[in-house]
Amino acid sequence: MSTEVMGINHDHVTAWMESNVGAVAPLTFELIAGGRSNLTYRVTDAAGKQFALRRPPTSHVLPTAHDMVREHTIISALSPLGIPVATPLGLCVDEAVNERPFYVMEFVEGAILRDRRQAEDAFALGDRFRIGANLAQTLAQLHDVDVVSAGLGDLARHDGYIERQIRRWRGQYEQMHVEGVEHGGLVESVGDQLAANIPTQQKVAVVHGDYRLDNTVLNEQGQIRAILDWEICTLGDPLADLGLLLVYWAEPADGTAALLGAAPTTADGFMTRKEVLAAYSQHTSLDVSQVGFYQAFGYWKLACILQGVFARYSAGATAGDTGSVAEFPKHIALLAETAKRTLEEA
Fold it and tell me: Over 50: is that where the pLDDT of 3 sits?
């Protein structure tokens, strides 16, 4: 394998990993497919040991969305509490090493289900139902973490989460404007509707921000070995995570099927959305009756995120990821329309 990997200063990072995480040179670096935001690399040393390395994109870096110190702090706090995360091994903030801060963690082996075929190949029909139950239970476990006792009390403000999120994602959406791509004010209009209908926040919790099946690594029994991609984690309203999980928990008849594709949860044997919601409810004291608002917020937030991905792709910041995003402008509009409809039905 070539030592030339975009986003990695091979010699400097090798030396740092030898000194700080016990890696044995020479090292090989491989960009893991799908890295259109923070970039994740599989690192293999001379002894065959594997590590995962995370760094920001190579351009279009937003300080809050691509903060490696923050991401490392979060998983370091959660790991001793039994929350399934990859064990953090080291953080480098010296930009002379690799241009941007990065951190290294254990490489967790297991199944990551990104589509229906992968789900059908990895798990027998009778084993799929329990995946949803474990995903919901694990999310409730994360939301039960005492943020102050965990050392995360200063991670973010404790109140006004949805208000802050609407401002943040709307601002990021506007920052990531791409010349010639317009949505007729739809994203902004839905943002205004959401801001006018925010439920009362019931508690402060660790909010992952992108909790979904393909951001987890599963063992052979369908239990979570590690939750991945903590880059937009913060403190706030736990039901935002639940709403987004239900957005991604696709069912065969969904109108967004063309966008989400053959999602793993469309395979036979998986829980329905209602069953996932019921499973979460069994492990929490929270009132979930207004979850429809949070689903609408999830669709809208995803539209804003896709705009950022589209802008970074257009600027060449994807470190060689050649996945096509040509349809993203259509997808952004569809998500905003779905958010509007979901909010009106909530």
Answer: yes
Kindly state whether residues 288 and 140 are assigned to the same domain. Answer: yes
Q: What does the pLDDT average to over 201-218?
A: 96
In the prediction, which pLDDT does 330 show? Answer: 85
Question: Do 69 and 155 share a domain, yes or no?
Answer: no
**Separation CA 195–CA 288 (nearest Å):** 19
Q: Given this model, what pLDDT does residue 252 score? A: 86
Most confident of 63-67, 175-179, 183-187, 280-284: 280-284
Owning domain of residue 29: 10-106
CATH number at residue 38: 3.30.200.20
Give me 272's structure tokens: 């329905």
Tell me if 205 sits within 8 A of 143, measured CB to CB: yes
Task: Write the pLDDT tens digit of every residue in 235-256.
Answer: 999 999 999 999 999 998 887 7
Confirm whether 5 is domain-assigned.
no
Do 178 and 84 sit in the same domain of this protein? Answer: no
168, 194 contact by CB (below 8 A): no
**pLDDT at 287 > cutoff 60:** yes
> Would you place residue 66 in the very low, low, confident or very high pLDDT band (cuts 50, 70, 90)?
low
With 50 as the cut, is the pLDDT of residue 38 above it? yes
Mean pLDDT (whole number) for 142-159: 97
Secondary structure in 3-state letters for the chain: CCCCCCCCCHHHHHHHHHHHCCCCCCCEEEECCCCCCCEEEEEECCCCCEEEEEECCCCCCCCCCCCHHHHHHHHHHHHHHCCCCCCEEEEECCHHHHCCCEEEEECCCCECCCCHHHHHHHCCHHHCHHHHHHHHHHHHHHHCCCCCCCCCCCCCCCCCHHHHHHHHHHHHHHHCCCCCCCCCCHHHHHHHHHHCCCCCCCCCEEECCCCCHHHEEECCCCCEEEECCCCCCEEECCHHHHHHHHHHCCCCCCCCHHHHCCCHHHCCCCCCHHHHHHHHHCCCCCCCCCHHHHHHHHHHHHHHHHHHHHHHHHCCCCCCCCCCCCCHHHHHHHHHHHHHHHHHHC
In-domain check, residue 94: yes
